[in-house]
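Practice problem 4.
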């Protein structure tokens, strides 16, 4: 990896500043190196203000490199404030721009509060969609996302629908979206995860995967045709599988990623297996983007109890993905 990672500020009133400090202390001796785009006043570790990402690697072992984006007013831990929205968004925009230009090897995004940004006029459903918009005009190889995948040591799940109601996720389910999600997932597992022949497992929607149509017909009319089309393309995918029987240890050994049809179908088993160490990865972008798999933690911000496991895992995974993509 020839460039450091860009770490965004996230919501300054959340746990982002705390876990950033913990992550720097954990990684300062061996890396991977990163720099933060945020307000230097937020961090308790030794801080070195930098003017360019090219300065980050040389000082990373002795101080946290911070590319300054100043807040309009001091952040109070736990006190969400839309006055911080402009700085939060600037941090993300700069991280994307530097990743696209090669000054950063990728971006790792600290948690944001959508309600804080919405109060300031933010129009995107969330982080994933905002980063996708910022990169929409950049050239890339392979199918374009965004697709959200949660990656951990024991399980990877890619989601067909993300932050939408269960009713809307079911009513909007179609073969084209399933096929697109699986294509992006298979390509990224090859390109960024080093899996030469990815094996995918497609979840069913209904109990027992519909029980031959007696418990629902979506498997017959939507999901099976999508799986057949993917197999015709040469993608190794099994399913639809009964969702309640595809996440135990023996079942997980047979695939590299599960394609889940709605948010909780994938995240409940994932977080049950690895609540603290999971990483949110956006697939199908021209830049590497990972994020810790948790929110802003306003209720514990500033109390010194926030765990940085997921952020550290996100930084390490982003570095691994960037190295494979560069190679």
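Answer key:
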């Amino acid at each position: 990896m020839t460039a450091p990672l860009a770490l965004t500020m996230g919501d300054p009133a959340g746990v982002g500043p705390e876990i950033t400090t913990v992550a720097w202390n954990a990684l300062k001796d061996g890396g991977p190196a990163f720099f933060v785009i945020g307000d230097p006043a937020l961090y308790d570790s030794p801080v070195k203000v930098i003017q360019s990402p090219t300065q980050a690697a040389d000082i990373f072992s002795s101080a946290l490199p911070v590319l300054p984006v100043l807040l309009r007013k001091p952040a109070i831990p736990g006190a969400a404030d839309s006055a911080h929205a402009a700085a939060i968004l600037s941090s993300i925009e700069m991280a994307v721009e530097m990743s696209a230009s090669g000054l950063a090897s990728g971006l790792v995004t600290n948690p944001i509060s959508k309600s804080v940004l919405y109060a300031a006029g933010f129009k995107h459903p969330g982080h994933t969609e905002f980063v996708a918009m910022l990169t929409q005009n950049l050239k890339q190889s392979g199918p374009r996302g965004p697709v959200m995948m949660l990656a951990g040591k024991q399980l990877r799940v890619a989601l067909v629908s993300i932050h939408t109601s269960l009713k809307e996720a079911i009513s909007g389910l179609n073969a084209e979206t399933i096929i697109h999600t699986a294509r992006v997932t298979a390509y990224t597992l090859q390109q960024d995860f080093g899996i030469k022949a990815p094996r995918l497992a497609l979840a069913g929607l209904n109990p027992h995967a519909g029980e031959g149509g007696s418990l629902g017909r979506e498997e017959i009319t939507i999901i099976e045709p999508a799986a057949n089309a993917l197999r015709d393309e040469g993608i190794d995918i099994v399913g639809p599988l009964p969702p309640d029987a595809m996440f135990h240890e023996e079942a997980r050994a047979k695939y590299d990623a599960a394609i889940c049809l709605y948010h909780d179908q994938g995240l409940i088993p994932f977080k049950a297996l690895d609540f603290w160490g999971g990483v949110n990865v956006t697939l199908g972008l021209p830049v590497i983007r990972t994020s810790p798999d948790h929110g802003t933690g306003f209720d514990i911000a500033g109390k010194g109890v926030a765990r940085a496991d997921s952020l550290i895992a996100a930084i390490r995974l982003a570095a691994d993905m960037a190295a494979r993509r560069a190679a």
